[in-house]
Design brief:
Structural class: alpha/beta
Largest sheet: 6 strands, parallel
Number of helices: 10
Strand content: 15-25%
Radius of gyration: 19 Å
CATH class of the largest domain: Alpha Beta
Shape: elongated
Mean pLDDT: 92
Helix content: 25-40%
Distance between the termini: 49 Å
Number of domains: 2
Order of helices and strands: HEHEHEHEHEHEHEHEEHEH
Strand order of the largest sheet: 7-6-5-9-8-10
Low-confidence stretches: none
Amino acid sequence: MYRGAARGEAPGVMLLDGVHLVAEALAAGIGIRHVAVKTEAMNITEIGLLVDRLERSNAYVDMVSAAVMDALSPVQSSSSVVAIAERPSPSERHVYEDGPALVVLAVDVQDPGNVGAIVRVAEAGGATGFVAAGACADPFGWKALRGSMGSALRLPILVEPEPPRAIETAKRHGCRIVATTPRGGESPFDVDYTGPSAVLIGSEGPGLPPALVDAADRRVTIPMQTPVESLNAAVTSALIVYEARRQRTRH
C-alpha cells in the first residue's frame, strides 16, 4: 500500500512522510490508517510522544526495521515515521463560502514542490481554498505534501481536471476571476480583492492558456525590473494573496 500511495495509485489515501506531517495530520483530525515507525527511533522523545498520541487515537502503529523503512519511505534518506492517511475531501462550500472567497486556482502547475508551496502561501495569507486544475501535480502527493508543510491537511482543496469548469464554478460562487500573465496586464496592486476572488496561476513554462486569460475579468502582471521576465508560481501567488490580505485587513 505504501508504494502505491507514493505513486498516487491508491485511491482515497495519501502517504505522509516524516514526523512533522504525521503530527500535523493528527492535529487536523485526518484519519490515519497505518503508521510505520523505525524501531531504533523510539528512543527519541518527540517520536515516542507522537506514537503515544497515535495509539490513543486508535491508529495502527507498526515498529519496523531500518531496511523495511527504506522500502516504505519514498525519500532517499528514509524518515523515522511514515503513514497512510485518508485524503481530505472538502466540498465547494468549504472553498467558496467561508466569508468572501479568496481562492488560488492553479492551472497545469506540474512541479509538486511548487504546488505544495502555493498551498502553503495560500493558507498563510488567508485564502479560503485552493483548486488544482488541469495537469496540476496532485496536491496530496507526497512531494506536494512535504512542500506544503502540512497546509494541504487544513486548507480546503479541490481537484478539477477541466480548467474551464473550475473557472465556471468560481464564477457561480460570485468570484471575480483574476488571471496572471507575464506581460500586458495591470499591476496586481491596483486590483480590488476585497470581494470574492479567484486568482489564476499558470504553469511554470507557458503560463496560462490564452483562452483562460481571455475569460478572466482582470489580467495582472507582476512589475519586474529588466531583464527578469517571470517569477516562480509560488512567489506570484504569495504576492497577490498577501495584497488581498492587506486590502481585506484594512477594510
